[in-house]
Amino acid sequence: MSLSSPARPGLCRTSRPLGVRLAGSLGTFADGALERCLAELLSSYPGRVIHVDLIAVTSMSLATTALLVTMDDRARRRGGELRLHLSPELERLCETTVRAQARVAPRD
């Protein structure tokens, strides 16, 4: 993966594959920079796959997770997608979250 200069610690744009690499604990403090970076990539490369490398992420806020879902929806409306690369820990957390949501009864 080749890197361009980092926008801020923990967030680096990548050119191969096209996307962004994140590291560390992602709280809401990172959401603004991440949203700007992804919006720029989606605008500059409509219809392309944008890779989001989360392998080195140790934790992620629910707001960051919601942001990734929102940006993927935006990408898909333009014929592209976000492709997430997860660490085994984040992958297990995502699977656990999906299973937990499946067990939640709908509200009447």
Most strands sheet: 5 strands, mixed
Shape: globular
**Rg, alpha carbons:** 14 Å
- Kindly report the oligomeric state of this protein: single chain
Amino-to-carboxy terminus distance: 48 Å
Proportion of beta-strand residues: 35-45%
Low-confidence stretches: 1-9
What share of residues is helical? 40-55%
**Run of helices and strands:** EEEHEHEH
Total number of strands: 5
Put simply, the count of helices is 3
User: What does the average pLDDT come to?
Assistant: 81
Helix/sheet category:
alpha/beta
Strand order of the largest sheet: 1-2-3-4-5
Structure at a glance:
This protein is of the alpha/beta class and 108 residues long. It is built from three helices and five strands.
Provide keyphrases for this structure.
alpha/beta, 108 residues, 3 helices, disordered N terminus, 5 strands
